[in-house]
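In the lab's daily routine, each protein ends up as an entry in a very long ledger. A line of letters takes care of the sequence, but it says nothing directly about the fold. The fold becomes a row of whole numbers, each drawn from a learned catalogue of backbone shapes. The protein below has been through that process, and both of its lines are reproduced in full:
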Amino acid sequence: MSRKSLVAIATLTSLLICAPAWAAENSPLTTVVVQASGNSAADSISLDAVVEAVRQTTLSAQVPGAIVSLRVKAGDSVKAGQELLRIDARSASQNAAASDAQVQAAQASLNVASKDYERQKQLFQKQYISQSALDRAQAQWQATQAQVRALQAQAGVARTQSGFFVVNAPYAGVVSDVPVTLGDMAMPGRALLTMHDPSELRVTAAVPQSAIAGLGDTSAVRFELPGLATGLLRPTQVQVLPVVDAATHTAQVRLGLPAGIKGVAPGAFARIWLPLGAGDSALGKGQRLYVPARAVVRRSEMTGLYVLNPEGLALLRQVRLGGTKGELVEVLSGVSPGDKVVLEPQTAARVR
């Protein structure tokens, strides 16, 4: 008999079918008592995760100015180098033109200083002027040279800044957010839009350091995307970052997302399953709770179970579920051993 079957049988035997309980309105409710099972080492643990883009970029303004052109909106697909947004650049263009004019004026002064210096050198050779007069002419020529270089640098900066008024897509992707509108004032550092590359996505989870220490064969790592894909999926690659966060004592695990999964987008909920090694992990020694899958209530984003309180009232309690084994589903949190779970949630909802 397979190990999976043994676990299912052992768990089923741990769920004691109780006699029908009587709720507040004397309606019979069939319940099961939750008991801990799986005292032996677990073979895997599940953790909540999130889908994120490998390449996600927030484009910000580098120069101030009013937004005069906004060519995209959230959800648009863009090509690499495509113009996305334009900021009013009239003032910058005038500054660049003024800088160029200053450079031309300085170059004219340099020509005059250069010719004057050559004349002073000839006069000095004929001993018509003193050494100090020649030195002053040389200093004037050198100062004019330095001024030209400084103005040329300023003109280069002005021309470079004029390119900051047009925001282009750094790569092909999808615009995920546009927090500005036409006419808004862009300031340096203000986010203009966010985009990501949908062709490269991954699943990321924060794993406790105790689980990292007992992590088994990473080729057995699986993940699931509730509502987007059926069953457990195999990642294209598994990466365990070699750094543990000092505040949360968790390490980040990244799973490569296979291509072709429709509807998946950054921010989507996921759940990963990590295999444990020889069972020496503290997490592997924990007991596991299972309930029949038919007892689970799903309402929008909420997942819960009807649990009887000491007065016999069936109260809906939010739970977090793990994996399934046959007709059973693991409960990761929300119930405790000894709780009485109603097997017929529709009946429990009516009698309350």
Q: What stands out?
A: The longest helix spans residues 90-125. DSSP finds five helices and 25 strands in the chain. Confidence is low (pLDDT under 50) at residues 6-25, 279-284.
